[in-house]
């Protein structure tokens, strides 16, 4: 069946932005997800100057400047170049899809491996990988933390030392700081040779699920279970703060950068390094920067919806905000502007999928495109009787 939404098969970058309903989306792939206060302030300034002052955190720990006017793209690129945040070509940028653990332990080799991998992926002879294909480098503390985040090849910690493994397998191959990046590219080349790419699309887990396995040496060392996604609040290395629905204003980014160095996470949270508590940031920022792990908005995922996404059938964020307190503890709600389900591709306890302005279908225990239990619910009806969400 043909989906009634466009499947693009690639992610935006800075050099190759994506058109959206509110202008261009310019994605910044920050080296190892780290942001010095100076760079963070500079990005906030660029967002105001060339975009609409809104910045999204992506599920791959990138920043997305929204609302960039097409005529503002060239000066924005020049400014990003001056900040040393660009790759040499759009192709190199697309390949440098590397997620790095936000934690740094004394024995951590992640940043070193990530830099080595980035250099190899920028090289002209790097494997020509599909647009969504990505790497996770997650070597600290004897156990990975990025297990819930998307990746096709993982270089990750185990109690016996780091391994490189294909997504979809519970075994990998032992590596060291010196050999890890090269091993990851060997595995990427195997993925291509084994038929993992079709029409410039393809993911490692899908290839493995078809029963196509890498040679024995790639299945010789067991992976360690990933740590659970941490809640917002103080953590060993600083303070995790969760911008509401993964969105920062330029003012919020400035406020966080004033507190310390920032590390981006795939959990739509920002780690402020070395900070134990967040001061009063003023009412507007306090409300949108979640630090309480019990905040009900953390149970809700929501995409930009209308009018920001041209594919959206309805606005989503106000409804998500209003329904959040009504979602029972321990359950999740996904509000999706269309059946594509960008904000939460996995099944969720409750999903509302927009089908028309002010009309949503309710799916229980499924994805945004799955058959609904109820059809045509209006936001007014849902807010008037939240039992519609849970009593079926
Ligand atoms: S799920 Fe949301 S962001 Fe994705 S295409 Fe549909 S409306 Fe747009």
Automatic annotation (TrEMBL):
Keyword Metal-binding: yes
GO MF annotation list: 4 iron, 4 sulfur cluster binding; metal ion binding; oxidoreductase activity
SUPFAM superfamilies: Nitrite and sulphite reductase 4Fe-4S domain-like (SSF56014), Nitrite/Sulfite reductase N-terminal domain-like (SSF55124)
Domain Nitrite/Sulfite reductase ferredoxin-like per the UniProt entry, residue ranges: 17-82
Gene3D superfamilies: 3.90.480.20, Sulfite Reductase Hemoprotein, domain 1 (3.30.413.10)
Pfam families: NIR_SIR_ferr (PF03460)
Keywords: 4Fe-4S, Heme, Iron, Iron-sulfur, Metal-binding, Oxidoreductase
Keyword Repeat: no
Classification via PANTHER family: BLR3264 PROTEIN (PTHR32439:SF9), FERREDOXIN--NITRITE REDUCTASE, CHLOROPLASTIC (PTHR32439)
Protein name: Precorrin-3B synthase
